């Protein structure tokens, strides 16, 4: 169990659901919520604390008034930003959310120098880079959430097409969080078999397409805002593996220094999580086609990095 976990954007959909689920699962003694909507943070904190009282849980969830209140937090989860609307692409969010991320991590670096950062805000991979740039934190302490969510969508779509929700499926979706994601069916496991052997080629095509559309489908249903139950659950899964490390491999957005032939960007790769954050990146042997697809997936991230550099939001120092 953590002592103090902060959620920046705690008044929003994803942030408040992380706080609720985290409190219900007893992951921290204290969840501290911060955002530009102070009153809603206070309301969410009180509401969840009252829910915790129903189950007699020893947890406090509080809305905070300033970054100083977050002093000494062990984990800071950043969900602050603007959610994608049906008209918006992830790229539209880029410049807006990069400035927000800069402001947040500069404050966190001041008050919680030892914290582990879990980034959720979109566009995810490049927001992680902005967080690294402006916090100055080491690479193991900055982890982006996306692969766990995309993997869950792949699992859901596979169960749906097989019409069997009793199957145990572990899914791995590497690459950028976006349309260029790389669902790695060969390495996905369905009741001990490779998912590539369980699904027909046509089924594989459908499952991959539906996984890629997973977020957009929800945006279209909600009309305002994007998914939050599954994204919040994905963050909780990461927190649980940080508290209790296991052999389980998760795909998270991590900083690369040569792994998978990637350099100087954050991208979704399989990792082992532990108390220090990213314990190590797992190098799965990829075939030529998969390597090429991963390389293509990184192109979009590199373009976003260029846009940020051209707008003075990222300097060469990373
Ligand atoms: N990585 C993923 O897989 C994934 C999944 C879902 C959502 N997201 C992203 O997560 C982010 C949050 O989504 P949401 O649905 O919770 O949105 P939301 O609008 O409900 O919440 C956003 C929160 O950010 C806060 N905020 C805005 N500017 C701020 C600032 N300068 N400082 C502090 N707080 C600030 C708002 O007050 C609000 O609480 C979005 O960027 C969304 O695209 C990512």
From TrEMBL:
<keyword id="KW-0816">Tricarboxylic acid cycle</keyword>
<feature type="binding site">
    <location>
        <position position="84"/>
    </location>
    <ligand>
        <name>substrate</name>
    </ligand>
</feature>
<feature type="binding site">
    <location>
        <position position="153"/>
    </location>
    <ligand>
        <name>substrate</name>
    </ligand>
</feature>
<dbReference type="InterPro" id="IPR015955">
    <property type="entry name" value="Lactate_DH/Glyco_Ohase_4_C"/>
</dbReference>
<dbReference type="Pfam" id="PF02866">
    <property type="entry name" value="Ldh_1_C"/>
</dbReference>
<feature type="binding site">
    <location>
        <begin position="120"/>
        <end position="122"/>
    </location>
    <ligand>
        <name>NAD(+)</name>
    </ligand>
</feature>
<comment type="similarity">
    <text>Belongs to the LDH/MDH superfamily.</text>
</comment>
<dbReference type="InterPro" id="IPR001236">
    <property type="entry name" value="Lactate/malate_DH_N"/>
</dbReference>
<dbReference type="GO" id="GO:0030060">
    <property type="term" value="F:L-malate dehydrogenase (NAD+) activity"/>
</dbReference>
<feature type="binding site">
    <location>
        <position position="97"/>
    </location>
    <ligand>
        <name>NAD(+)</name>
    </ligand>
</feature>
<dbReference type="Pfam" id="PF00056">
    <property type="entry name" value="Ldh_1_N"/>
</dbReference>
<dbReference type="GO" id="GO:0006089">
    <property type="term" value="P:lactate metabolic process"/>
</dbReference>
<dbReference type="InterPro" id="IPR022383">
    <property type="entry name" value="Lactate/malate_DH_C"/>
</dbReference>
<feature type="binding site">
    <location>
        <begin position="9"/>
        <end position="15"/>
    </location>
    <ligand>
        <name>NAD(+)</name>
    </ligand>
</feature>
<dbReference type="InterPro" id="IPR036291">
    <property type="entry name" value="NAD(P)-bd_dom_sf"/>
</dbReference>
<feature type="domain" description="Lactate/malate dehydrogenase N-terminal">
    <location>
        <begin position="4"/>
        <end position="144"/>
    </location>
</feature>
<keyword id="KW-0560">Oxidoreductase</keyword>
<feature type="binding site">
    <location>
        <position position="122"/>
    </location>
    <ligand>
        <name>substrate</name>
    </ligand>
</feature>
<dbReference type="GO" id="GO:0006099">
    <property type="term" value="P:tricarboxylic acid cycle"/>
</dbReference>
<keyword id="KW-0520">NAD</keyword>
<dbReference type="InterPro" id="IPR011275">
    <property type="entry name" value="Malate_DH_type3"/>
</dbReference>
<dbReference type="GO" id="GO:0004459">
    <property type="term" value="F:L-lactate dehydrogenase (NAD+) activity"/>
</dbReference>
<protein>
    <submittedName>
        <fullName>Malate dehydrogenase</fullName>
        <ecNumber>1.1.1.37</ecNumber>
    </submittedName>
</protein>
<feature type="binding site">
    <location>
        <position position="90"/>
    </location>
    <ligand>
        <name>substrate</name>
    </ligand>
</feature>
<feature type="active site" description="Proton acceptor">
    <location>
        <position position="177"/>
    </location>
</feature>
<dbReference type="InterPro" id="IPR001557">
    <property type="entry name" value="L-lactate/malate_DH"/>
</dbReference>
<feature type="domain" description="Lactate/malate dehydrogenase C-terminal">
    <location>
        <begin position="149"/>
        <end position="306"/>
    </location>
</feature>
